[in-house]
Design a protein that fits this description.
Blueprint (H helix, E strand, L loop, with lengths): L3 E5 L3 H13 L3 E5 L2 H10 L6 E5 L1 E2 L2 E2 H8 L7 E6 L4 H9 L4 E4 L4 H28 L13 H13 L6 E5 L6 H10 L8 E5 L5 H9 E2 L11 E2 L1 H4 L4 E5 L6 H13 L1 E3 L6 E3 L3 E6 L3 H7 L4 H7 L3 E3 L10 H16 L8 H9 L5 H15 L19 H4 L17 H15 L4 H7 L4 H10 L3
Parallel strand pairs: 1-2, 1-3, 3-6, 6-7, 8-15, 8-16, 9-12, 12-15
Antiparallel strand pairs: 4-5, 10-11, 13-14
Helix pairs in contact: 13-15, 17-18, 18-19
The structure holds adenosine-5'-triphosphate and magnesium ion.
Length: about 450
């Protein structure tokens, strides 16, 4: 796709040179020699540039005032300023207003090319986020969290309250697959920030260094391999929400840095000198007990208290089993539509099995089971043979583990390896009445290993 570049420059020679140069590198270049002309192009003609390269002082005014006036009236664009004076106050203001960069004239075209390329990349990402935002907020309201159990109703009530207030931070807790991601989306797209971006980051998925530069961004040359400037996720989420999944896995020193950013509403890119203002709502999620972790020092207590002003705790499915009444028809209808099936009758024996199951993978496990059955269905009847749930007598919910010494685990991707590990240990401990020696024997391991893992998972 050919993108538009707007050049605002009253010096004829420079304007012509920039236009020619960027036309040759594949841009559609539009050149304005005054702010009035630029305004006409942006507002009336709606040229929608991805990038704007502007002189600082034009015959009819200052380009920063112009940027401030235009920014919210046009589609997302990155602004680059060129100036003959190199005045510091202007450059500070330019960055505070969200300008991408500030260059002194005469500028070297090779250098400008690098900046243009990374600014264009940044603007493209930001636009994509903006488009997703528009289509998404329709789908998420508190009603998207389904269930009539008292627990589910309490969650929905809390969500209605929370989407009406401008909270700055919040924690969502709950076992794997209980809907933490769903709740985060409801809170964002159902709240006052719905038209602004929601950015997600999984703190467990990235090594420390990468997580830091992803969150805070970096300047060119901040470390080996940092070619251009990169706006971090906190900046990308500006005005909106940053959803930090698995925040319990975040290294402690980064937690300190995050806390500072939340309290100051400012960040500093790696290798950068200036602070950039950010206005971000943080939604943090974890399937671990952050409160306990804060007590034992494996999570920063100050960050925990800052984030945990509001908490949404999601019930495990086995404790709100009546919610199956709504969840099952919901998922059956969803996969009917997706796969062109017409399952409409669920036999009583199927209901009985589904309700008796322990659901260690919670709603995600349920969703996977329903998907498999609907996809394999031949007609209107929900096919029992594809349930593949453990036999009733193996089920810890109905029988306890002690008599069978066995455990059921869904191997359909609904539980991650760590969740499985944690669940096994938790179950062995429950079964042994929290006797570490007995549990270690049952798992064929040493007391030390078990103690290490108990600490790791905060059991
Ligand atoms: N109460 C609910 N109503 C409707 N859908 C639900 C509900 N709870 C969970 N889901 C659905 O179940 C699936 C799993 O939920 P989600 O991914 O939000 O879980 P999670 O708590 O983030 O899990 P993890 O800890 O593994 O990241 C999603 O498809 C979600 O939409
Ligand atoms: Mg999740």
């Amino acid at each position: 796709m050919i993108e538009t570049l707007l050049v605002i420059e009253d010096e004829k020679l420079l304007g012509a040179e920039l236009s020619r140069h960027y036309q040759n590198s594949g841009w559609e270049v539009v050149w304005a020699t005054s702010l009035a002309e630029a305004k006409e192009l942006l507002i009336k003609k709606k040229i929608g540039p991805l990038l704007i390269i502007s002189d600082m002082n034009l015959p009819d005014g200052n380009a920063l005032d112009f940027m401030e006036a235009m920014k919210n009236n046009i589609n997302y664009a990155e602004w680059l300023f060129l100036t003959g004076y190199g005045s510091v106050p202007d450059s500070v203001r330019a960055l505070r207003l969200g300008a991408y960069d500030f260059l002194e004239k005469p500028c070297d075209l090779d250098h400008l090319d690098l900046i243009v390329a990374s600014a264009a990349r940044g603007a493209t990402i930001q636009r994509r986020i903006g488009e997703q935002t528009k289509t998404r907020h329709i789908r998420y309201s508190p009603e998207a969290y389904v269930g009539h159990s008292p627990q589910a109703q309490a969650v929905r009530n809390l969500l209605s309250k929370l989407t009406a207030v401008p909270f700055s931070a919040l924690i969502i807790g709950g076992e794997t697959g209980t809907g933490k991601g769903l709740i985060a989306r409801i809170l964002h797209y159902g709240g006052p920030r719905a038209s602004q971006p929601m950015i997600e980051v999984n703190c467990a998925a990235l090594p420390r260094e990468l997580l830091e530069s992803e969150l805070f961004g970096h300047e060119a040359g901040a470390f080996t391999g940092a070619a251009g400037r990169h706006r971090g996720l906190l900046e990308q989420a500006n005005g909106g929400t940053l959803f930090m999944d698995e925040i319990g896995e975040m290294p402690l020193d980064l937690q300190a840095k995050l806390l500072k950013a939340i309290e100051d509403h400012k960040i500093r890119r790696l290798g950068g000198e200036k602070e950039v203002a950010v206005d971000v709502q943080i939604i943090a999620a974890s399937n671990r007990d952050l409160e306990k972790m804060a007590q034992t020092g494996s999570f920063r207590a100050d960050l925990y208290h800052r984030l945990g002003v509001f908490k949404v705790m999601l019930p495990p499915l086995r404790e709100a089993i009546e919610d199956l009444d709504e969840l099952i028809p919901l998922f059956v209808a969803e996969y009917n539509a997706k796969a062109g099936r017409r399952v409409s009758a669920i036999p009583a024996t199927v209901w009985k099995k589904l309700k008796a199951h322990y659901w260690p993978g919670n709603v995600r496990e349920l969703r996977n089971v329903i998907e498999r059955c609907v996809l394999f269905a031949d007609g209107e009847i929900f096919p029992e043979q594809w349930l593949n749930l453990p036999k009733q007598e193996d089920n810890p919910a109905t029988n306890g583990l002690s008599s069978e010494n066995s455990i059921y685990l869904p191997l359909d991707g609904s539980m991650a390896l760590d969740d499985i590990d944690c669940y096994i240990i938790k179950t062995a401990l429950e079964q042994s009445g929290n006797n570490l020696v007995a549990a270690a024997r049952a798992l064929g391991t040493t007391r030390e290993t078990l103690r290490y893992r108990v600490r790791k998972y905060n059991l």
